[in-house]
Amino acid sequence: MNQTMLQCQRLTHRFSSLGALVLEDVSLDLTNGEFVSLLGPSGCGKSTILKMIAGLIRPHSGEIRDSRPVGQQRTGYVFQEPRLIAWRTVQENLALPFELSRVKVDHDEIFRTLDLVGLSKSDAFKLPHMLSGGMKMRVSLARALLMQPTLLLFDEPFAALDELLREQLNEDLNALWREGLWTGLFVTHTISEAVFLSERVLVMSPHPGRIVGEFAIEGPKVRDQEWRNSLRFQQQVIAIRETMRSGRSADQEKHGLSQTGSP
Ligand code: ADP
Ligand code: MG
Predict the structure, then answer these.
(1) Among 47, 188, 251, which residue has the most ligand 1 atoms within 8 Å of its CB, making it the best to mutate?
(2) 94 pLDDT exceeds 60?
(3) What pairs with residue 46 in β-bridges?
């Protein structure tokens, strides 16, 4: 079970030949079944890494090795915006993954998955504009789960939600992950969210984007309000914040020098 499923080796990227280096030497491994967060400030290249893993962007140099057996290489993607089709009901939105794979729509599976993400049968007949922000994210999560992914990529999915709702969705996401069906790679710029959810947190720094620290999170399997209120949780949030602050001051110094043109 504890096998490497994905290896990113020395990924380097710029979006055009003259453009700035966006990622430099980013290496990370994912082990089957784990939950890892990629934590860093806006613009440090987190989304770019996810897009590379999903095969949407090719790295300028470096390599991504997928060790999942053939037939198991299903990767789900949960975006920051729910990206639901406005004129389709929830059920019709969730039929889309089946339609795109040209297989018969499994409505029982759709209702089962809706239940799994905390939505009711009656929600299935609503249009997206009738749903709250949190409910839309739950539909988006259901859509990704319906593909039965072995790897789920999350790109700041709860960033637009208010704090208490976000905390609830984090607890629900942890419960889904504990079922053991998929490995999670979760992008966020919020330290507490990364510590709350993860077994491992990779800290990134910008200009160019690179991984500057790795933290193994010591926490219980069940991540709930008790975990959030614990001293152990707070201590790990503080330790990561310190790393990020020192990374940021080094980065600002570097930029300060180049702006003033000092030798
Ligand atoms: P993050 O997700 O950490 O906020 P991104 O991966 O979206 O960061 O972007 C990293 C850097 O690459 C940013 O400076 C951004 O402006 C730049 N960038 C992202 N996508 C493109 C693109 N398609 N073309 C040019 N530059 C881009
Ligand atoms: Mg992003």
Answers:
(1) 47
(2) yes
(3) none
Please name which of 194, 206, 208, 199 lies closest in space to residue 241, comparing C-alpha atoms: 194
Alpha helices in the chain (DSSP H): 46-53, 90-100, 107-116, 133-145, 163-177, 191-197, 225-228, 231-260
CA atoms within 13 A on the CB side of 166: 17
State how far the Cα of 23 lies from the Cα of 40, in Å rounded to an integer.
13
- By the 8 A CB rule, do 57 and 109 touch? no
Query: What pTM was computed for the model?
Result: 0.92
Beta carbons of 143 and 65 less than 8 angstroms apart: no
Cβ atoms within 10 Å of 147's Cβ, excluding its own: 16
Cis status, amide bond into 82, omega within 30 of 0: no
For residue range 188-244, list pLDDT tens digits in order: 999 999 999 999 999 999 999 999 999 999 999 999 999 999 999 999 999 999 988
Nearest CA to ligand 1 atom 13: 43
In sequence order, what DSSP letters do the residues of 181-231 get, joined into one string? Answer: S-EEEEEES-HHHHHHH-SEEEEEETTTBEEEEEEE----SS-SHHHHTSH
CB of 45 within 6 A of ligand 1: the answer is yes
Q: State residue 111's pLDDT score.
A: 97
